[in-house]
Design goal:
230 residues, mainly alpha, two-stranded antiparallel sheet, 2 strands, 59% helix
């Protein structure tokens, strides 16, 4: 209600008074927002922010879904967005972008081991945020979103070779590397008629290595080839 007074009330005195009041009242929110989008840390002792960290278990760890891998669990389960806590002064799309920025920074810092970049980013990009300066706030959020997402994608590509591994999955598990698959099946033809219990690992490994050397698979990176196993 007060926000609507400050933005659309016909009486300039009432609008100015409402804006001054909101500037003071929303100070804690903007402090938490600044800490979240520039440092990736949640500082919300009274549970007033739109991001929530699930309560820890008895051993102090955050409860995770046992069906997920650890890194995925940190990304999916460490923080949740509380839609009921989104203030009327921001839109839901804006809130989701804010949520992704902080979650990505936290993931970069703790799961990707790149806290130095987060510290440097916080030092260079951090600025004061306050109620009323909507244009500056939107620009700050957009810049933070683009910078954070670009760094996360760069880490996935350069440090963890995510896209290279995805291409390898397509080539070797989904049979996209045709010459390799054809040569492997041809060399294994006599073995595939035997019971599974009679298969010898060293024989299968030798046939695998033969298929790699005789096809374009030999030109893949060593990081991918060392993961091909019988």
């Amino acid at each position: 209600m007060i926000h609507s007074f400050s933005s659309s009330h016909g009486d300039p005195f009432v609008a100015a008074f409402a804006e001054r009041m909101l500037t003071k009242v929303t100070r804690p929110f903007y402090d938490m927002l600044r800490q979240w989008i520039y440092n990736g840390e949640l500082s919300d002792p009274y549970h007033e922010f739109l991001v929530r960290e699930p309560s820890p278990t008895q051993d102090g760890s955050v409860p995770i879904d046992p069906r997920r891998a650890p890194a995925t669990s940190v990304w999916e389960d460490k923080y949740k967005m509380e839609e009921d806590m989104i203030p009327s002064i921001v839109t839901e799309d804006f809130a989701r972008k804010v949520f992704l920025i902080g979650k990505s920074l936290n993931f970069i810092r703790y799961s990707c081991g790149d806290s130095a970049w987060v510290e440097a980013y916080c030092k260079d990009a951090s600025r004061e945020l306050h109620y009323g300066d909507t244009a500056t706030l939107e620009i700050s959020i957009d810049e933070a979103y683009k910078t954070t997402m670009a760094r996360l994608i760069d880490l996935m590509d350069s440090k963890f070779q995510l896209f290279e591994h995805l291409r390898a999955l397509k080539k070797y598990l989904l049979l996209g590397q045709g010459d390799f698959i054809a040569l492997l099946m041809e060399s294994l033809a006599s073995n595939l008629d035997r019971p599974a219990g009679s298969q010898q690992r060293h024989t299968l490994t030798a046939q695998l290595e033969y298929a790699i050397r005789g096809s374009n698979a030999q030109y893949d990176s060593p990081e991918v080839l060392r993961r091909l196993d019988a």
